[in-house]
Amino acid sequence: MTSRLMQNPLGAAMACTRLLITMTAFAITSMAAVAAEPAAAASAKHSAPLEIKRPASPQPWHRYKVDSQGSSWPQGDWNAYSTLARIATAPPNGPLHYTTPIEGDPALGRQLAFDRARGGSCVACHVFGKETPAQPGNVGPDLSSVGTRHGDDWLFNYIYDPRNLNKDTIMPPWGAHKIYSVAEIKHIVAFLKTLKEPYTFKDPQEDPATRSVPKDTRDNLDPTENPAMFGLDRGKEAFKRAGMNGKSCASCHSSPETAFKTWAARMPRYEPRLNKILGVEEFIARHARATTGGEILMQSDDNIALSIYLHNIANGAPINPDLSSAGAKQAVASGQQLMRRKIGQLNMACIDCHTRERHASKWARGQYLVEFKGTVAHFPTWRTSRGDIWDIRKRFQWCNVSVRANELPPDAKEYGDIEMALAALNKGAKINAPGMRH
Ligand code: HEC
Ligand code: HEC
Ligand code: HEC
Questions:
Q1: Percentages (nearest 5) of helix, strand, coil residues in the chain
Q2: Whose CA is nearest to atom 17 of ligand 1?
Q3: CA distances to 103, 125, 275, 336 from 182, in Å
Q4: Mind listing the pLDDT tens digit for each residue in 343-362?
Q5: 9, 86, 323, 372: most buried, per Cβ within 10 A?
Q6: CATH code where residue 418 lies
């Protein structure tokens, strides 16, 4: 991983000057607080010093070009479409009207329908009879005999903008969101009209209805299996390393393994000083600035390493966030709402892929869609297919970009709300970090 901090030594130095000022101020206030009520200070809930003025991640945020070992991130700008922070997408305009028959070139239509550069292609969700390319998905119905089922006008309109007929559909509005032109959709309709034969797969692993569900049997705590275990060692070192003002985490926390036994399992939490949800990684960035003077921005190597360490200490502890405050309740409600929002050029919501109410437990091309329950206890997690360790916010960012929605910076309030809603949903699941996933 490249450290963003290293790319801007001047900014970091300036930040340090300001931090020293903050630090001095903190020392004075905290001494006053201790003098006033020595007993209460130790037991006061959430009294950990935090720097609360500056962003906890690089800003303005620029999307990753590559992960640490070179796997690239899509670089499109989808500003015209909604994000988790902003509703921008126009509602559907109503069906367009065409007189049957729609003329087009079926061979060109097949090529367009199978073109992965177009939002993953139709094959991400549909089977197309004997011509189906490798590893089709089954989020949508089998189209092997769709040519016998519908009229041209209906087919055209369902592809152009299916929201006119089914407002919650996961199928993207291919025409209305300009992924295919009107002329291209006519070619696709011509291709679909040639599909008339039901199809039986010869290989059950090709058929998304019978393909076996991935099951990870690797031991995530074995360093020879999980490269993220090196992050654990790095986290232990970072805990002992002195920051700008000569203090390390260990200077104030001499037995983290006892003190933080269940801490990460109780995160994220509502933080009144920020009026938003604070996750482990943002806590590390803000608490370090206020204590050691270290600038440990979210998603930097040291931040992820410390997050692995603090999560790993809590391994086995059941996820148990404090949901009692009004702030926490409001965040859960907001997170649930945000996960229903259609975003990006592909116009998909989190719940479309991650709940059984919609399409969880089906295949989007070669990717099995997991339910939200069971998805958070193993973060930060090694991603074999990407060769990188991701914290949960980076996972959210990727799930935004993969539906062609601009992602938010890691410390965005909206991600906090979603993280809280997911923690509430996963209450009781035991922390098991660092994880390992495909
Ligand atoms: C993300 C998944 C997804 C992708 C990608 C997708 N579809 Fe669909 N499609 C669906 C779903 C789900 C349905 C079932 C109805 C609904 O929920 O809208 C559907 C329904 C259809 C139907 C109606 C079938 C019927 O008999 O009722 C057609 C036709 C269709 N899709 C064509 C396409 C074409 C052409 C493409 C590529 C340009 C495509 N789909 C890409 C998810 C998808
Ligand atoms: C100058 C002393 C000091 C240093 C240095 C320090 N902390 Fe803390 N830390 C505190 C105080 C004070 C609290 C609040 C009381 C408590 O929980 O012990 C706290 C609380 C915490 C908590 C519990 C947080 C919560 O939600 O209340 C964690 C976890 C933690 N610190 C981790 C760290 C890490 C990681 C570092 C190094 C980046 C670090 N600390 C550096 C003083 C310090
Ligand atoms: C187009 C489908 C799709 C959408 C929409 C989507 N995701 Fe995902 N998500 C995936 C896939 C595919 C994976 C990888 C599943 C796996 O690890 O097997 C994944 C993985 C995840 C994971 C980690 C699962 C694990 O166990 O490691 C989380 C958490 C997650 N998504 C959250 C979200 C959130 C929050 C949103 C909305 C902002 C969202 N996703 C939107 C497809 C989607």
A1: 35, 5, 55
A2: 169
A3: 12, 21, 47, 36
A4: 999 999 999 999 999 999 99
A5: 372
A6: 1.10.760.10
> Which of 277, 258, 259 has its CA nearest to residue 269?
277
Range of the domain at 163: 88-212
Residue range 389-438, pLDDT digits in tens: 999 999 999 999 999 999 999 999 999 999 999 999 999 999 999 999 98
Ligand 1 lined by 170 (C-beta under 6 Å): yes
Closest Cα to atom 36, ligand 2: which residue? 249
pTM (2 d.p.): 0.91
Which of 212, 237, 252 lies at the terminal end of a domain, its last residue?
212
CA distance 40 to 45: 9
- Please tell me if the CB atom of residue 165 comes closer than 6 angstroms to any atom of ligand 1: no
Question: Do residues 281 and 322 both lie within one domain?
Answer: yes
Ligand 3 center to 372 CA (angstroms) = 8
CA end-to-end span of the chain, whole Å?
19
Q: What is the DSSP string of 50-97?
A: ---SS-SS-SS----SB-TTSPBPP----TTS--SS---PPPP-----
Domain count, the chain: 2
